[in-house]
Amino acid sequence: MTNRVANNSAILDKIGSNSSVNRVKINQQAKSKSFRAVLDEKSTEVKISKHAEKRLMTRNIDLSPVGMNKIKGAIERAEQKGVKDALIIYDNNALITNVKSKTIVTAAKLDDLETKVITNIDGVVLV
To answer: In the chain, where are the structural domains located?
Structure first.
């Protein structure tokens, strides 16, 4: 029994901080992004709610990557001004967005708005 404990401790000593296994793990961690970096990156992305996704499809509104970058910029400008819920006018489209969560809540074509009344917003950004 004493021999096994001695052998195990010798093995553990060999696996110490200079082992190739630990060096590989450290290199992988250095190459991968930190949790904070991934979180920050994700928190700057514009999200589309399921409701807005349905509205975009049924109303044939296509948001290209360039358009999404413009919308992202509009949300950032609204955030700087303290807007909570913004109407973003982009390419003849009306996008209601929650600024804090950076989420498009609903979408409509400006020409198709039935009542021509938009409620529950506290700012408008023209793109």
So the answer is: 2-32, 45-126
